[in-house]
Amino acid sequence: MATKKKAGDSAAAAAAESPAPPAPKKRAAPRKKAAPKPQLKTGYVALVGRPNSGKSTLLNALIGQKVAIVSDKPQTTRISILGIKTTDKGQTVFVDNPGIHKPLHTLNKRMMNFVYSALETSDVVCLLVDATEKFGHGDEYVLEALRRVKTPVFLLINKVDIVRKDKVLPIIDRYKDLFPFKEIVPISALKGVNLDLLERLITEALPEAPKLYSDDEISDQSEKFLFAEIVREKILKYVTEELPFVTAVYIESIEKKEQADWKTPGETRPVTYIRASIFVEKDNHRKIVIGRHGSLVKQVGIEARQEIAEYIGHKVFLDLQVRVRERWRDSEDVLDLIEGQKG
Ligand SMILES: Nc1nc2c(ncn2[C@@H]2O[C@H](COP(=O)(O)OP(=O)(O)OP(=O)(O)O)[C@@H](O)[C@H]2O)c(=O)[nH]1
Ligand SMILES: [Mg+2]
Questions:
Q1: Domain boundaries, the chain
Q2: What is the 3-state secondary structure (H, E, C) of 180-237?
Q3: pLDDT at 37
Q4: Whose CA is nearest to atom 13 of ligand 1?
Q5: Which residue from 247, 308, 313, 325 lies 20 to 30 Å from 283 (Cα-Cα)?
């Protein structure tokens, strides 16, 4: 972390040097007024929208590294995650949220509570819509949720990389009559289209305020939560139908050990042992996640282990157990356990 230099340090240092000869009495030259220091622009920016609209992809693109997991299955994000971007202009704290949907289980009610609290506490709200999807009831439901927002709302029309240009204008026309958006920006979170422009507009709309986090912080999630999410992302790649919704991951333990390095006798190297439980709701879910002769869970383990090892920079052992927790989506205890991993 950079140390803060106190104002006047250099003046004090100069004054401490040997005494100057008596100065001839001259009229002081008129002093130039110091230019006022530009104020930092800082605040929270909520990323909201329907499931699968690309909020987590956008968060990762804006931060420049993977902070949140991404999948082509809806309702991937279950807990809000911060992505903090510090520049010489200030600090933008992006809040990635679960997709807005009608909640049926306690899990989904909690997911929606994250969204509502982000809408209430953010300085700017970015509503992402998927340019490839037709406008429907789900979108009306989202706009309804935005009616109570008092801060500026940007409309981001995402995935413009895969729609014809003439499809974007009608989307803009429809939305601008439905809500008083402060800005409307067509983007591609995946290909980075218009993200510089978006960041400029967001910075302009943020209040003048000092930074909220230290310069080296990029997220608010613990390693434990990140590892659980990485495992879940790999599962989401391979499962379909109700499986994405009924799967949760809990990291039971993380243990770092020093082990003898057989390549260089007398030396040791770090190895991290991770034990994780994959919760599903029924025994037939468990069989699917384990796969034929354990093939699915094995593949998930290989991919998750590689990504975690790359992240921590040394060897990882990952032990995955698939367990049935009936109706865990309505169990406050299991939900507390999973949420509690975030730290
Ligand atoms: N072609 C294209 N695909 C995108 C773009 N942004 C996101 N996607 C894809 O859309 C899917 C959903 O992306 P996510 O970032 O997980 O969407 P989300 O809004 O966070 O979804 P939830 O967490 O479920 O609410 C993934 O398959 C992404 O690769 C984009 O700009 N262009
Ligand atoms: Mg997401």
A1: 41-205, 223-342
A2: CCCEEEECECCCCECHHHHHHHHHHHCCECCCCCCCCCCECCCHHHHHHHHHHHHHHH
A3: 73
A4: 54
A5: 308
Q: What is the pLDDT of residue 29?
A: 61
Find out whether 105 and 330 touch, Cβ atoms under 8 Å: yes
Distance of CA 239 to the CA centre of its chain: 23
Q: State the pLDDT at residue 223.
A: 96
| Strands, sheet with 315-324, edge to edge from the N-terminal-most edge strand | 248-260, 268-280, 315-324
The stretches in the chain having pLDDT less than 50 are 1-20
pLDDT for the residue 2: 31
Question: Which one-letter amino acid corresponds to residue 115?
Answer: V
The protein residue with its alpha carbon nearest to ligand 1, atom 27, reads: 72
| 41-205, CATH topology level | Rossmann fold (3.40.50)
Does the C-beta of 158 come closer than 6 Å to ligand 1?
A: yes
Residue 112 confidence (pLDDT): 98
Yes or no: is domain 223-342 CATH 3.30.300.20? yes
Cα–Cα distance measured from residue 48 to residue 143, given in angstroms and rounded to the nearest whole number? 11
| Residue position matching structure tokens 């243990």 | 255
